[in-house]
Amino acid sequence: MWLQARDFRNYRELEVEVGPGLTAAVGPNGQGKTNLLEAMYYLCSLVSPRVSSDLPLVRVGAESAYVRGEVEAGGSTLLIEVQVKGSGQNRVQVNRSPVRRKRDLRRQVRGVFSGPEDLAIVQGEPVERRRFMDEAVAAHWPAKEGAAPAYERALRQRNRLLKDWDGQTAAPEDLGAWDEELVAYGSALTRLRAQAVEAIRERAGHEFDALAGPAGGTLFVEYRPSVEGGPLEEAFAARLASRREDELVRRTTLVGPHRDDLALSVQQMAARGFASHGEAWGVAVALRLALAFGVAREVGEHPMVFLDDPFSGLDPARRARLALGLEERGQVVMAVPDRAQVPAGAAVWRVEEGRVAPE
After folding, report:
1. What does the domain layout of the chain look like in residue ranges?
2. pLDDT band per the 50, 70, 90 thresholds, residue 88
3. How does 103-140 read in b/e, with b if 16+ C-beta sit within 10 Å?
């Protein structure tokens, strides 16, 4: 992979070439290490792993950012060119041909990004774990990434109907029609989340065991859907019917994937409430590495893996185990604050004030 960027975050101009194996970007905080990883991940996915809007990606004072590069995927070389606009539609081309939908690129190029924000998956609210499950669905099967937005649209419409209900009739008009939409989209999303969790569940435990060591305990990962049973659509409709009175009182939808969760436990205790900082960090990293493994198994080749400050929450023994476990995972690029954290054999880039130079 090679990458060129202009006016992206704090980079006026940037050009790097990623070799095989492990590469480490080294430099003090605030110099652009994370921005560098973000630019490479953006080239693979057309989204930032850190912000929901593209506006922060454009360097202050510039109208647009530009990212371009070549990626090897599926036995082919893809030239990807992106004009990132602060507002409006971005311009994306692959091999000089326009790309209209993000998933058209993601079907060809895969990347996985792990950073400090992933602690929220372990320690945050259920919405963070639902977001991770939907990211896992999109990473494994890009063509299915519209399942979550489709469900969210149906949910918003149904909730609006409940909120605007005047209370003069037995139930809001057209509620039955939105019940059908919710059941259809919600059942599809439930099945996809179940498949995605199953694809990474066992591997996440293996990754955590390798990182934590013999005394570190075992990580268990379990999908906990709002609706269970089968046939799923019938079970979903029955749950909706059973909660109808409560929904009319509370004016909101009480059944569906928006109330799902992902159970994460270490040493038979919930990671959210009982895991130490180091354990929680290890769980977060293990989930992302398991996702990369699942994608590799799905498509037959390793995705690019980007690790932002992966050692900061780990003790020296766990750092050593993680570094050892990064071998033979394809191209891996990590950001670390000092040279002492660079694993043996890694290529090294020095990052300082928005400039990148190989050592």
Report:
1. 1-110+306-359, 114-302
2. confident
3. bbbbebbbbbbbbeebbbbbbeeeebbbebbbbbbbbb
- pTM of the full structure: 0.94
Residue found by looking up tokens 């058209």 in the block: 104
pLDDT at 175: 94
Confidence of residue 328 (pLDDT cuts 50, 70, 90): confident
Task: Note whether 99 and 93 are within 8 A (CB).
Answer: yes
Class of 1-110+306-359 per CATH? alpha beta
Third-level CATH fold of 114-302: Glutathione S-transferase Yfyf (Class Pi); Chain A, domain 2 (1.20.1050)
Nearest to 72 by CA among 139, 17, 34, 126: 17
77 vs 74: CA distance, rounded Å: 8
Higher pLDDT, 167 or 175: 175
Separation CA 82–CA 262 (nearest Å): 34
Amino acid at the residue 65: A
For residue range 209-231, list pLDDT tens digits in order. Answer: 999 988 788 999 999 999 998 89
CB 176 within 8 A of CB 187: no
Of 327, 308, 325, 336, nearest to 119 by C-alpha is 308
Report how far residue 193's alpha carbon sits from residue 246's, in angstroms, rounded to the nearest whole number. Answer: 27
Average pLDDT over residues 132-136: 98
What does DSSP assign to residue 85?
A: E
Please report which residue ranges of the chain form alpha helices under DSSP H. 33-45, 102-106, 119-123, 126-140, 147-164, 175-212, 232-242, 244-250, 271-274, 277-299, 316-325
The torsion region of residue 150 among left (phi > 0), alpha (psi -120 to 50) and beta comes to alpha
